[in-house]
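Hello forum,

I keep getting stuck at the same step: I have a sequence, I want structure tokens, and every attempt I make locally crashes halfway through. Rather than fight my setup again tonight, could one of you with a working pipeline run this one for me? It's a single chain of 197 residues.
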Amino acid sequence: MQGPEIQRMIQLVSRLPGLGPRSGRRVALHLLKKRELLLKPLIEALEDANSKIKTCHQCFNLDTCDPCSICEDYKREQTQLCVVADVADLWALERSQVFRGRYHILGGVLSALEGIGPGQLTIEPLLNRVEKLKIQEVVIALNATVDGQTTLHYLAERLQPFQVKISSLAHGVPIGGELDYLDDGTLSTAFMERRSL
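Reply #2:
Ran it on my machine without issues. Output:
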């Protein structure tokens, strides 16, 4: 039906998160129909990103410079470090503008099912940074999944010798949430983590 070039394009587009074979075909066809408007600028942007974007050797963020612009920003709080699983998590926190310290990206979370142990994550570089930079607080901002919580407890244990304040994100009832619609785990966590008024 289609030539090998189109098939290859569809297969590669289909590998993107949230896309499957059917949506991959639609995206590929749309790009091919709009070559001048979309396809050529996209190719140029991808080539530019491939040649210029690097991984920061300090925090493992993606940026065009190494160290990244966040690590180089001395207006940020130098004694706070927020640990996240992935670059997308860092970007989400930056969008919210709730944290003004530095970051450390683990590159995932511990997962026995996927065979991800401490050696596959950037835990040793994290411990080195905490010691070298005289960090006073480490905020562990991981997803509220079993693997995320396992990683949180592992990191808390490894950070104990540094005598830093260790905190994690709150879990529970979201703003605007109704108790009747919450799952049992969220409701249970919210109740256990209740605070005095």
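The longest strand covers residues 80-84. If your local run keeps crashing, start a new thread with the error log.
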